[in-house]
Structures are given as C-alpha cells and as structure tokens.
Design a protein that fits this description.
The chain is α+β, with helices and mostly antiparallel strands. It has a single domain, classed as 3-Layer(aba) Sandwich (Aminopeptidase), CATH 3.40.630. Helix content is 26%, strand content 36%. It has 2 helices and 5 strands, in the order ββββαβα. It has helices at 47-63, 78-86; strands spanning 2-7, 11-18, 21-31, 34-42, 70-71. Strands 1-2-3-4-5 form a 5-stranded mixed sheet, covered by helices on one side. Helix 1 links the parallel strand 4 (34-42) and strand 5 (70-71). The protein is globular, with a radius of gyration of 14 Å. The termini are far apart.
Length: 101
C-alpha cells in the first residue's frame, strides 16, 4: 500500500493505493490560513492503510508550514469524533444549518 499526493500550495488530494486500486482518500484545502481536511474515506479492512493516509495528511500539512489544522466530522458521528479526540483533536466550533426556502 502507498499514498499518492497531488498538491498545490493551498490544496492537496491524497489517495491510498493498493495495487492499481484507490482504497482510501482525503482532501485538504486551506481556508483563512488553516488546512481543512475533509472527505476522508478508507475501504473497510484497511486499518493499517488508514493510519498511513492519516500520517501522510499530517505530514503534508506540516511540510507546508502549518501548526494547526481542522477536520470535519458530521453531526451525530460520535464514533468518528471520539476517534479524532483520541488522536488529540479538540472540538472548536459547531455549524448549524437550516433550510431557508
């Protein structure tokens, strides 16, 4: 398994590759000087690869000189939020939405 990165100064797409297949990915975009990681996914059973992808994303952000980063976790996804908290991430804000039609 390997991680391939397609990046500019303000964005990156990282793909977890096994053989010829993409088995995971994450997108990173910089907003107001903070890299924001979103769209994480890894095929089931690829736990070791998920760790590789996570480490590669952190490494890319550090290589760009960022000391702080942000991630998105959907409301109600407590399992994922707890996972990130165990890695040292802390809640920073809450986004509320409403249909306005």
């Amino acid at each position: 398994m390997r991680v391939e990165t397609d990046a500019t100064e303000s964005a990156a797409s990282l793909r977890l590759i096994e053989g010829d297949a993409t088995v995971g990915a994450v997108e990173i975009e910089v907003h107001d000087g903070v890299p924001f990681a979103f769209g994480w996914w890894v095929n089931p059973g690829k736990g070791h690869g998920a760790a590789m992808l996570y480490k590669a994303a952190i490494q890319w952000m550090r290589s760009q000189g960022y000391a702080t980063a942000a991630i998105h976790v959907d409301a109600g996804n407590d399992r994922l939020a707890d996972f990130y908290k165990r890695l040292g991430w802390e809640p920073a804000s809450t986004v509320l939405t409403k249909e306005i039609q």
